[in-house]
Design a protein that fits this description.
mainly beta
Length: 206
């Protein structure tokens, strides 16, 4: 009797291909026109790069180890440093840790970088899955804004009417917020979904 929400991105109908753009060979399933790809690889334990299959710089990457208990971690060029990470689904703000999963290197239109000894992105023999999104004009937009403390808040122009909006404070520990026109089509929207608990650390199960 519960009400559930599912947010679904189409990739390539299950068709995958090998990608050798990076120093670590990956398997990708890509919807290039929709700016979304699913990437899998096996960790090497060495600093390296991984092909993501998009023809544009990813604006958001989520990575999870499939074979070990570990957090989801997030990359974004909007973070103040390429050594930072955000743990997906928790209230934690950006973390600058010795883990340094992105090896202090910005993603490009072909690859993203991973640190060799980072257990949540590239530890030797572990298997990983990554989800990468890019900007697509009129369809998807990533960016940042600065709050003003007013009831109405700042105005942010996307160039289209979003069906899905996700917000995370980049300055301190606060919950992720999701707005969805499916769950609340009113304007202004009066309800939000929380990502609390989404950050499950478990390995892949059947």
């Amino acid at each position: 009797g519960g009400t559930l929400h599912a947010f679904v991105w189409g990739a390539n109908g299950g068709t995958t291909s090998s990608n050798s753009n990076g120093s670590i060979t990956s398997t990708v399933q890509t919807h290039s026109g929709g700016g979304f790809s699913v990437i899998t690889w096996t960790g090497t334990g060495n600093d390296g790069t991984i092909g993501h299959g998009l023809s544009a710089e990813p604006q958001l990457i989520w990575v999870k180890t499939r074979s070990h208990t570990s957090d989801w971690v997030m990359y974004s060029p909007e973070l103040s440093s390429t050594s930072h990470r955000i743990v997906v689904g928790t209230s934690q703000g950006p973390q600058d840790t010795s883990n340094n999963p992105w090896n202090s290197t910005a993603a490009t239109d072909t690859v993203f970088s991973v640190k060799g000894d980072a257990g949540n992105v590239n530890q030797n023999t572990r298997t990983f899955v990554g989800y990468a999104w890019a900007n697509v004009t009129g369809y998807r937009k990533f960016g940042t804004y600065t709050a003003n403390g007013n009831a109405n808040g700042p105005s942010v122009t996307t160039g289209f009417q979003p069906d899905f909006l996700m917000i995370k404070n980049l300055d301190k520990d606060q919950e992720w917020i999701i707005k969805s026109r499916v769950s609340d089509s009113s304007n202004p929207s009066t309800t939000s979904l929380s990502m609390r608990g989404v950050s499950g650390t478990h390995a892949e199960t059947q």
